[in-house]
Request: fold
Amino acid sequence: MRAGLLVGVLLWSVLPAAQPTAAQTGPEARPADRGEAYRLFLRGRYLESEDDVDGAIRAYREASELDRATGEILAELSSLYARHNRGEEAVAAASEALAREPDNSTAHRILGLIYASRANARAGTAEDIRLAIDHLEQARVGPLPDFQVELTLGRLYLRDRAAEKAIDLLEALQKEAPGFSETGLLLARAYELDGRMADAVETMERVVAAGPPSSRALRSLAELYGRGGRWGDAVEAYERAVDRNPRSARTRRELANALLQDGQAERARDVLDELVTMRPMDAAGLYLLSEVELELGNFEAAETVARRLVEVEPEGVRGTFALAEVFSRRRQHRQVIEVLEPLLAAAEARDLRRRQVAGLLRRVGHAYEQLQDYDAASRVYQQGVALRPTGLEFAARLAQAHLSAGRVADARRVLDGLRGHHGGNLTVAHLEARVLGDGGDVDAGVDMLRDALRERVEEPAAYLVLAAFYSQYERFPDAVALLESADRRFPDDPAILFQLGAVLERSDRPLDAELAFRRVLERDPEHAATLNYLGYMLADRGDRLEESVDLLERAIELDPHNGAYLDSLGWAYFKLDRLERAESLLQRAREQMAWNSVIQDHFGDLMLRLGRYADAIAAWERALAGDGDDIERSTIERKIGDARRRLAR
Reply:
């Protein structure tokens, strides 16, 4: 039988058989016909009880022909069809009943439940929901509620996002049967849909307290706690749900996620270890376990789990994504590309969803950007633009890649296409200002971002964007004044204070910069970027080197594969003359960030100190071929000449 036309046995097991009354024979039928119609009606009921469905159908049909004034016999025929999962025939019979008797509640009930069943099926449509609601609303007759109709209608209101209707219906239903947990579950969802989170939580807490609560009720309460940020309470509810249903993999995964959100990553790992031991092929559990291992900084364990997931789901994508995430967190951008590009190339053949393809493009493009291969990044982002022609993300990334490569005209063309859809967006304004600035008109870029700031005076991001623009074009006093103003307006935003410290350092105001950075660490002792910046600043000055090492080791503990942090700590050890430790760190940093001129320069200085002149020359030559940021080319050329003379001796 065709999908979408069957009505579930459970749904129809509660459909009552009609009880014949005098009204069912209709006032317009002749007495003899009414008597015969009634006899045939009873015969139909008897034949169905004897499993002679075809005979029952014939009896009902004959009865309906004898008494055409009523729709109730046809409604009963429709009910018979429904009880035997003959959906199309049930719809036809109920529709015929309504043609005779438009307000026949039985026919409306059957049609409403059939359309509701279709709406719940995979191929259900918005039209099915509309029809189901329309018929069920007309089936609500009599002083006592029909619980199946009421609950089904309540669910449909929720599907249709008609929160107020759902609340009115379910509150009334709860008064009729206060101990019925299903009503409470639906009512909590309705409150949540209406934005009444406190009422939703209170309702679910009452359902659970009425007990013994089902695993479903406990999970629903836990989800509400989680949406409100009450992760400790969510953990407790999920733990109770696991006790109620220990074999539920889904509940264990939800518990692990709540533990992770509550800062209990090690307990989350224990829950997931137990789950994948119990169910070794649970792909969703393995994926979450890989995330938890990454959160704990266990990169090798995360990679092992991700590779196991690839084996469990050889045709899936989660394992590949998990593996790429491990490489990305290690800053192994080449490996990210090697893992994801084959999947991207096979996206059409693998029938990947648009969301999955977008995720692949995002990760691959980012990896190319980190390698400063802006041509490759642009090609990837162009595919993203083709996938989402009016979207902002990939177009903005493409414009940024063009700007990073110095292709101002290409970036301008991309932004011209964005303006119609995202003209008021801050990201677009920033990119357009960059186009103006890189094109030589910095003042026009400033004016554009000032206009954007005037429209967003309560958004810290608007201040950060303008300050970054000032800093990029070395208008440091303007950047400092703006950030100091923003710090007064948003005293709890560490991003503003961090950027202020960075601008002050670039303005040759190291003491003021240090003060700003220390204020950040007072607010957030684990602000890794600040730990690194302050630690490197001290190391580069040769000032308080032991403190510098302490700050930088804390930064690396938070982000152990960050090449910039590795370089900073290696440079601090170099200044302390701990050359073996410095070499290990600087080697890792220069391999990861081969394009970074400063890191290559640092490695060259180390090689010179170790007397390895050829390696020093090679490192400095890489520095000259790199991005050129924050180096003096003449100084490096002089160092190369000196090393060559030493090598010749």
